[in-house]
Structures are given as C-alpha cells and as structure tokens.
Design a protein that fits this description.
- The protein has one domain: Alpha-Beta Barrel (TIM Barrel), CATH 3.20.20.
- Helices cover 33% and strands 11% of the residues.
- The protein contains 15 helices and 15 strands.
- The protein has a four-stranded parallel β-sheet with strand order 6-7-8-11.
- A hairpin with an 8-residue loop joins β3 and β4.
C-alpha cells in the first residue's frame, strides 16, 4: 500500500512577501526605482486607534435641534489684514495643474467654494479655471518657483510657502514628460514632454533666518493683506514648528520615499502643538494638518489633538471620481484595480482627473465633480460637528485630548492620551 505524500501549505515569508519579491524582480529587470502616488501603504498608527468619550452625566451632550455647535475657522487673523474666514475646518490641499487636469482643478474650486472653504494651487502656478471658480484660493510658493509671479501672489487669498510634503519630506516631486503638455510647459517655462523634478529646497535660503526674510518679502509684495502659511513635511515636527505628513501624497515620488521617510500624521500633531504652546502661539498661529484624512472622525480627532483645521488631497480626488469601481475594466487594462490605482504620474487616469490627455480629461464634468466634492465636504463637516455635540462642545475647536482614549499602547504614547480603560499615558510618569 502506497501512502500518498503529505503536502504542507506553502508558507510565505513575512520579510520576503509576494509584493517584496515582485518589487525586487521589477527593479532587477528595469534598473529604475518605482514611482507612484497615493501615500504610504504599510500599516501605520492612525486615527482609527483613537476613540472619543461621549458626554453622559459628568458632561452633557448638546441638544442637536436647540443648541448650536460652530464649525467656522479663521486663518491668519493675527498677521494679515484680510484673514481667511472658512465655514468648515476642512480645506483642499495643494495639487498642481499638471498633476491634475484643468477640469479637475475647476471641480476642486467649485466644490470648495460651495461649502465656504479654500482650495490650493499646488506647484506650477495659478490657472484661470482655478482662480475663476475658487472663492478662496491659496497660492503655493514652492522651491521650484514654477509659474510664480507677483501678480498671482496678489490675486490669491493666502500664500503657502512649501518647505516639504508629508509623503516626501526632504525630497521634491516629479512630473513625468507625458504630463508636460504644451500648456503645462508654458506655465512652468519647461521643455514640452521632458520629465520635471521639483527642487527639494528653496534656492534663496539655507535656514530659518532666511525663511523669516522671505516671509517679510511676501508680506511686502502683498501689502500685508494675505495670510501666509508654512507647509512642512512631518519629520521633526517639534523643531520644525518651533522654527517656522508620510500619509500625504497625491503627487508622485519614489516609493522608497513614501514608505520610509517621514512620520505618520498621528505622530506629528502633538509635538507641533507642544512647540506652539511653548512659544505662546497655539491658536494664535493656526495649525493645519494634512495626510490621510478620510472622514469626519479623522477631522474631529485632529482638532481634539490641537489642530485648527485639516486639508484633504487624496480623499478629494476620490470624491471627484478617482478609483471609481465603475471604471474597473479600464483599471484592469492598466494592470491594476479600482481602489489600488496610484500611477497618477503616468497620465492615463480613466477618470480624467490626474491626466493631461485631452480625451481622458473630457470624461470629468467639473460641475458634477464639484457637486460631489461639496457633498463630501458637507458630510465631513456634519460628522465632525456630530462628534463635537456628543462630547458636549459648542464649537468643534473645543474638542480636546481629554475627549480621547487610545486602543493601543502605541497610539496612547503617540497621541499622549490614556489607554482605554485606564488613566495611563505611556511615557508619562505620575508622581
């Protein structure tokens, strides 16, 4: 009698999993590193690891129909003659024309304006579509200086000096040649069809003293009318904030950067707030958090940890229609699937959002896209407000760390809130 061999289930290595093996094989075959967008895909400590403590007896919740809960935000009131007054604490992060189509930029402006918030230019300058449909437009002043001119600085409602981005602190973005159309090339003063790499640092300063000089220069150009932001990638948030997110990243860059440089958004907020508090500037200088914001709970948790507002990028593109399952057949033809498509740099987006192909760009109706984005922003605001009400707060800015507990030891230590069911904050001694 022959005994059949016993087969064991093949075991995949946790170090050399299937994706890691495929990436080694791709690198060996091509000799180039991978480029993509979409932010880090590894599991990170996140807002999902935090929970709110609703009001009950020790604190009373707000009655939804009779008691108001404010959601308005004022940005730049301390230093600018014309601060930004927003009806919601959710803004649109900088995403460039070039990375996005003209119709997508228009849709972002339409959606943001419909709910009374701001949108941001991104690298490459200001477009007519964006300025014409944005009631509040923030102009990004980047190391590349692509498309920059003083007239557009004055036409903007605020200026954002970009020093770094969460997905690539210390590195510049990329725009591949297939997205450098005639119009993009003209705006950026670049050769058409040639890969563009943004500079990783500003050419006219080497430290915080030079940054102060630049801020004064921009204030003089705009007659002190415009609020000025400073955007830094989450890397050393305490020191960078004192002198001035890994999960952000609609722009394309090397995957090795996205996955291995910077820190999670959750880990960046409390050190930044601490720096502002020690300077006596918390709530006087506003803190806007960007990177991985997906829903109203994320917004509320960021505000509770000390942020004044948040900015969304990837979520805004998804709201416009990116990675729509209705386009699954076309995503599969590109070798991917809806929900995993991150090759925005290639300019072949079936949704017509991250492309400069005129035929693909026609697929996005900016009016419909703007309406979808406005709906999403409204839901984020209502969800944030609902949580604040449940915690007994008359304004979303009244949310505080005491309203939160953590589900894991790591999240408790990072967010500096108690582990659920205890009064223990890891790393903080009690005497």
């Amino acid at each position: 009698m022959t005994v059949p061999p016993i087969r064991t289930e093949p075991r995949v290595s946790s170090t050399f999993d299937r994706y890691t093996i495929s990436e080694i094989q791709r690198a060996a075959a091509t000799g180039i590193y991978d480029i993509r967008g979409g932010g880090a895909k590894r599991k990170l400590p996140s807002f999902d690891d935090l929970l709110f403590l609703g009001a009950s007896i020790s604190r009373y919740p707000l009655e939804g129909y009779r008691e108001k809960c404010g959601t308005d935000v004022v940005l730049g009131s301390r230093f600018a003659k014309k601060p930004l007054h927003l009806r919601t604490p959710v803004t649109i992060a900088g995403m460039s024309f070039g990375a996005l189509s003209g119709a997508a930029k228009e849709a972002l402006g339409r959606g943001a304006s419909a709910v009374g918030t701001s949108t941001t230019t991104g690298d490459g300058g200001m477009t007519a579509e964006e300025r014409g449909h944005s009631s509040l437009l923030v102009y990004q002043y980047l190391p590349s200086r692509y498309g920059m001119n003083p007239d557009d600085l004055r036409r903007a409602d605020a200026i954002e000096i970009v020093i770094g981005q969460g997905a690539k602190p210390g590195g510049g973005g990329m725009l591949l040649g297939q997205k450098i159309s005639e119009r993009v090339a003209k705006m950026r003063i670049l050769p058409e069809g040639i890969d563009q790499r943004s500079a990783s640092r500003h050419p006219d300063w080497t430290g915080p003293d030079d940054l102060e000089i630049k801020i004064e220069e921009l204030r003089e150009i705009t007659d002190w009318q415009k609020p000025i932001y400073v955007k830094v990638g989450a890397s050393r948030p305490y020191y960078d904030t004192a002198l001035a997110g890994m999960q952000g990243g609609t722009a394309a860059t090397q995957e090795v950067f996205i996955e291995n440089v910077g820190i999670p958004t959750l880990a960046a907020i409390r050190p930044a707030v601490q720096a502002l508090e020690e300077l006596g500037m918390h709530r006087k200088v506003q803190l806007i958090v960007s990177g991985g914001i997906r829903n109203g709970a994320d917004v509320a948790k960021a505000l509770a940890l000390g942020a004044d507002a948040v900015a969304i990028g990837t979520a805004a593109l998804i709201a416009l229609g990116d990675n729509n399952p209705q386009l699954e057949a076309e995503y599969q033809a590109l070798g991917t699937t809806a929900g995993a498509y991150d090759d925005w740099h290639e300019g072949r987006d079936p949704a017509g959002i991250t492309t400069q192909d005129p035929e693909l760009a026609k697929r996005l109706d900016p009016v419909l896209g703007g309406r979808r984005l406005a709906n999403f922003l409204s839901v984020l605001t209502l969800e944030t407000q609902t949580i604040a009400r449940a915690c007994g707060k008359s304004h979303v800015h009244n949310l505080e760390p005491e309203d939160l507990v953590a589900l894991t030891v790591e999240a408790a230590a990072i967010a500096r809130v108690p582990l659920v069911g205890t009064d223990w904050i890891p790393g903080q001694h009690r005497y």
